[in-house]
Design a protein that fits this description.
The chain has 289 residues and is α/β, with parallel strands linked by helices. 33% of the residues lie in helices and 13% in strands. The two termini are 23 Å apart.
Length: 289
């Protein structure tokens, strides 16, 4: 985990694909930035994710681009993910990623973060969990909450598409009441689990519920959450990334769906603990936000 691993051996530089050379020379590594990283660099720089195998128009792909573009220190970051649609993107990311068993991503992230802090006590190393609602809210709920209870210094990001999307369309705890899917033909019988509120109750110092419709808002939330997790304690982001396939939308309708839900189930929710609020003020004064 250092910028050096992205530097090309001079003896092999003349045979390297241009994409690899661009990754070293034109990616927005924090070491080369005078200002905090953000989505404003996306049009002119080498992205850490440039292709994926998701469905055309999938909002998860856009959301992941926003997340990657706003990591404070990508070269010092490990992302832990779980089984789900997001796992199809991670082989294409130019970062350290760890694929955990379905649901235990926060337990794996805990171990990684503790070892990094022990091995590199003088270097900021960020560990970010990125998983779907099935892994975060259902199968992995215990692991998720226990990491909050223990006050682990990790950020958990849930890409909430309100369904088990890559296994045929089963309902999850995050599914809205009444929603019908191919493998949930009678509709969801109870209300959506508000994981962002549960995160606050369980000890998170920063918790947000939002959609991926506004790139700048996503980038700001990601950066704030990771900085707070470094110094204060666990943070949580719940980001709506609808499965357009399962809810019957075409490839160009994902953004409209997210904008509609900005005023409904995903109306903006933000909690910042007093300690985190003071820390973010300090970060802003120091030019870290």
């Amino acid at each position: 985990m250092a910028i050096d691993i992205y530097k090309i051996n001079p003896e092999f530089r003349d045979i390297m694909p241009q994409e690899i050379i661009d990754l070293e020379e034109k990616a927005t590594w924090a070491e080369n930035q005078e200002k905090p990283r953000g989505i404003k660099e996306l049009p002119d720089t080498k992205e850490l994710l440039e292709e994926h195998s998701l469905c055309a128009g999938c909002p998860e792909a856009a959301a992941l681009r926003y997340v990657l573009s706003s990591l404070p220190k990508p070269e010092e970051t490990i992302i832990v993910n779980s089984t789900g649609c997001t796992s199809l993107m991670f082989p294409h990311i130019a970062l350290h990623t760890v694929h955990s068993l379905f649901g235990n991503q926060n337990a794996v992230a805990t171990g990684i973060k503790r070892v990094l802090d022990w091995r590199f006590p003088d270097t900021e190393k960020d560990v970010v969990v990125l998983a779907g609602d099935g892994a975060t809210v259902d199968i992995g709920l215990d692991y998720t909450l226990q990491s909050f209870f223990r006050q682990e210094n990790i950020t958990t990001i849930c890409f909430d598409n309100e369904v088990y999307a890559n296994t045929g369309g089963q309902e999850s705890g995050a599914t809205a009441k009444g929603q019908v899917f191919k493998m949930a033909p009678t509709g969801k019988k109870f209300e959506k689990v508000k994981m962002w509120e549960l995160a606050v109750t369980s000890g998170c110092h920063y918790s947000m519920n939002m959609t991926a419709s506004a790139p700048k808002a996503v980038a700001k939330a990601v950066r704030e959450a990771i900085l707070v997790a470094r110094e204060i304690g666990p943070t949580f982001l719940n980001i709506y990334t609808p499965c357009i396939l399962e809810i019957g939308l075409s490839a160009n309708e994902g953004l409209g769906e997210m904008k509609d839900q900005d005023k409904d189930r995903f109306a903006s929710f933000k909690y910042v603990s007093p300690a985190a609020e003071e820390f973010l003020k300090k970060c802003k004064a120091e030019g870290r936000l």
